[in-house]
Amino acid sequence: MPAAAPFNPEDIANAKYTERPVKEGVTTKKLICAACDIACTVVGEVQKGRVTKVRSSDNPIFRDNICMKGIIAPKGLAHPNRILHPMKRVGERGSGEWEQVTWEEAMSDIGSRLKKVIADHGPEAWAVSTSQWNTSTDHGLGRRIMNHVGSPNWISGVALCAGNTAAVNRFTYGWFPFGDFGNTKCIVLMGHNPRRHSWTPLYNSIRGAQAKGAKLIVMDPRRSSSAERADIWLPLKVGSDAAMMFGWLKVIIDEELYDKDFVKTWTIGFEDLKKRVDEFPLERVAKLTGCDPEMIAEAARVYATSGPAVIPWTPITDMQRNSTSGIRLQTILRAICGNLDVPGGELLQGFNPDIINESEIEMHDVLSDEQKMKQLGSKDHPAFTYRAQLPFREPTKRVYGQEYANLVMGCHMATPSETFKAMAGEGEYPVKAFFFLGNNPLLSYANMPLIQKAMMNQDLIVAHEQFMTPSAQLADYVLPADSWLERPWLHDMFGWMSTVRFSEKAMDPPGECRSTFEFWKQIAGALDMPEVVPWDTLEDFYDYRVARTGMTWEEIVETEVHFKTPAFRQYEKTGFATPSGKVELKSSILDDLGFDPLPYFREDPPQDADYPLKMFTGVREDGFFQTGHRHIPEMRARHPEPEIYLNAKTAAARGVKEGEWVTVENQLGSIKAKLAIKDAMPDDLVRVPHGWWKPEMQQGVGHLSGALDYGDSQLCRDDPDFLDREQGIPHIKGIPCRVVPLVAAAPTKVEASRPVMEPAE
Amino acid sequence: MSLTDKEIRKHERSARLMMWMAARSSRNKTLIDRVCRKIIVRATTVDPEKDFMRDELIDNDEGFDPDELDRYQRGETA
To answer: Distances in Å between the alpha carbon of A745 and those of A660, A662, A712, A748, A749?
Structure first.
């Protein structure tokens, strides 16, 4: 998620801000950090043509939005293992045998082979996996080319992290809101735990709001650091968030704490919703969530009556069997409590009219409806595919001025699991060419065995990467990617917010590293469609995107940020961007697609006695972003090994001790990890670390730099009981598993677990 | 918890003013820009003991030497 540009300068409160003097021999550049997906505005200090320091911004509205991943970037990106030249596979796939080629040689061959795949199997046989951070700030150009070629099969980690939330939010009120932390009176964190070094601006905003008196409610099975600071902590059972929200709604509706005027004027389906909510008396909710009914009621009352409140985006409800219902319940709480588009509530900002946004760049209109309907996942799990999102074209045009709003890139995606099935030869049709940019698919999606099978079944795999990740090891070509220090960036907040920010180029890329702009421009050329990317340089492209401001890129980058004039309750003029123009508590689109138009709760399947514990994964460790940063010595010193967390009681019952190596196993696979005892963990819950591999370990098939030993995606199931129905995303918050001591091949030296930043990250 | 239209408009005016100041502060070129930045700094400064963003790792960061980074990139240092 992007860093919020404050609506109110009081959002950011800190004492150590000073105007920094310019040092001799040092120049400074205004940058947006892409070490993670938050996009903090920072400053790069440059000496001898190198960025030697990354520090917090000189601009007081962005100050202190920086973390350890940002400050280590000059060293992390100077790592000797950085890929500096195009590499072509010469042995068997995954053999680790490469030869250096030129960009031109690589692109010529890639173009020929991709055209052959398209000729043999159709344009839909080409899939791309990426995001808009790390290396992948491609400004929508990838989608633009895919749309011209005719492929709808674009996937991303945002399918289970914010992008899907954006798509599901649209079902209720047509946009994805962002909280006004500067004026809010209450914040609800659902399992999310922003910290000083993870989701830093959000942590900053929450602490700032608390300092001004806002209440904090935390739902989390763990006693997280946010839970310790909360006014109310609801230690619910893992994966029961949707049930908890039903309990809140029961209290809020029964006690008439909702905004009656808003509900009457601006919503449809309230009576149907009420009937569904009546199926969840607090006694049932208490049983489903494991929380005290009085505490549930008290939290609901605080949320509904404190004043404008926010429920910030949370990855937790993105990754559950009940994801669509969970996200819909959040939208319903926001709406009926009168928090939509009001100061201190949830702002529906729309696009910044002065900037050509990425949804426009993507040109979804050129992809035919026939090809759109071929998007993998459309048939069974359409929620974020074209099939479910096309009905928003007219309402979005009416309210936000354009038909396509690919918010957080999540509103026109193929379903990852269906895409990998097709790649493996088990889908509706074959997918035979796969590109990934700044993305490590083996470790980023559920069911690594399927993904590996899928990749081994490809005719062409192209990676655009900074380092030889486990996924890149299976590619035909690995092309060297630049970094956020080495190119400019126009950040349109993924369409989520209307503020636009700008980043300068601070140094030249090393070796032959090139940007995604250059990558896609060359791909367009290799596919004989250079006119699709007509700009000569990234700066030319940005001149085009900012032209409506009356400034050039060179001029606007000096301003650092470009705001849209704030306005509230815009729906009073335009209605909401839904088919009805109202807040659809009962979704007409889900109804038309044959799904339950109201939220519901699917309970866990019967427990398997062989797997008595439950695990969750997907949580970031402070030193790493997703599967990255394991090559940086300073970060690895903080987290040298993958660690699972158990509490002492659960560990003792398994006969395992702090610092010992264990395996976590379930029906899909197993991983190795060290055990850390954390009293912040509840009984029988296992925290599995996300995205682990070790760059220093052996590469290639059968090894994959430790990904086969440690990669959590080997435990993430995607069979029907573990998929959300509407979206087809995996349930990774409560997977049955067991933990057993690792006897064979265990390291002989058992060390005490090292401390980490938080009690239970 | 409905806000009245009057309250909404008041918030809107306040938000527009703040945004204007934030934009001027970001540009930081002219006298008015610099005045805006000073006002924002003053309005947002809190006591060090209440500063939840203080962090030893960040505060003590001295960055890197460019020659050291060159040597590191060539694999000559760890």
So the answer is: 12, 11, 19, 8, 11
- Is A684 assigned a catalytic role? no
Show the DSSP H helices in A174-240 as ranges: 200-211, 225-228
The pLDDT value given to residue B66? 97
Chain A CB contacts of B44 under 8 Å are: 9-10, 12-14, 17, 60
Domain coordinates in residue numbering, chain B: 5-73
| CATH 2.20.25.90 domain span(s) along chain A | 9-76
CA distance A630 to A696: 9
User: What percent of chain B lies above the pLDDT cut of 90?
Assistant: 65
pLDDT given at position B3: 76
Name every residue whose Cβ is closer than 8 Å to that of residue B13 and which is 6 or more positions away in sequence: none
Contact check, Cβ <8 Å, B73/A59:
no
In chain A, which residues fall in CATH 3.40.50.740?
A: 87-156+353-492+499-562
Question: In this structure, what token pair is assigned to residue A520?
Answer: 């896609």
| H helix runs in A152-277, sequence order | 163-173, 200-211, 225-228, 241-254, 260-266, 270-277
| Distance between CA atoms of residues A354 and A348, nearest Å | 17
- Residue A638, chain B, CB below 8 Å: the answer is no
Q: Which CATH class is domain A9-76?
A: mainly beta
Name the CATH architecture for the domain at A87-156+353-492+499-562: 3-Layer(aba) Sandwich (3.40)
pLDDT for res B48: 84
Nearest by CB to B25, from A61, A78, A79: name it.
A61
Give whole-number Cα distances, A541 to A110, A361, A545, A552, A732, in Å: 24, 10, 6, 11, 40
For residues A386 and A2, give the distance between their C-alpha atoms in angstroms, rounded to a whole number. Answer: 24
Burial (CB < 10 A; 0-12, 13-18, 19+), residue A544, is middle
Q: Are B51 and A207 an interchain contact pair (Cβ–Cβ within 8 Å)?
A: no
Q: Which CATH topology does A613-741 take?
A: Barwin-like endoglucanases (2.40.40)
In this complex, which of B44, B50, B73 lies closest to A12 when CB atoms are compared? B44
pLDDT at res. A9: 40
**pLDDT(B47) > 50:** yes
- pLDDT tens sequence across A443-478: 999 999 999 999 999 999 999 999 999 999 999 999
Do A83 and A466 form a contact (C-beta atoms < 8 A)?
yes
Residues of B in contact with A568 (CB under 8 A): 8, 11-12, 15
User: A37, A64, A318, A482: which one is catalytic?
Assistant: A37
Q: What ipTM was estimated for this complex?
A: 0.93
Cβ contact A65:A201 at 8 Å: yes
Is the Cβ pair A48, B45 closer than 8 Å?
A: no
The list of chain A residues with pLDDT below 50 reads 6-17, 748, 750, 753-757, 759-760
Fold of the A178-347+575-592 domain: Dimethylsulfoxide Reductase; domain 2 (3.40.228)
Tokens of B50: 């209440």
Query: For A121-135, what is each residue's pLDDT tens digit?
Result: 999 999 999 987 766
**Between chains, do A68 and B28 touch, taking CB under 8 Å as contact?**
no
Distance of residue B34 Cα from the nearest chain A Cα, in angstroms: 11
Q: Which of A15, A60, A74 sits opposite B69 (nearest CB)?
A: A74
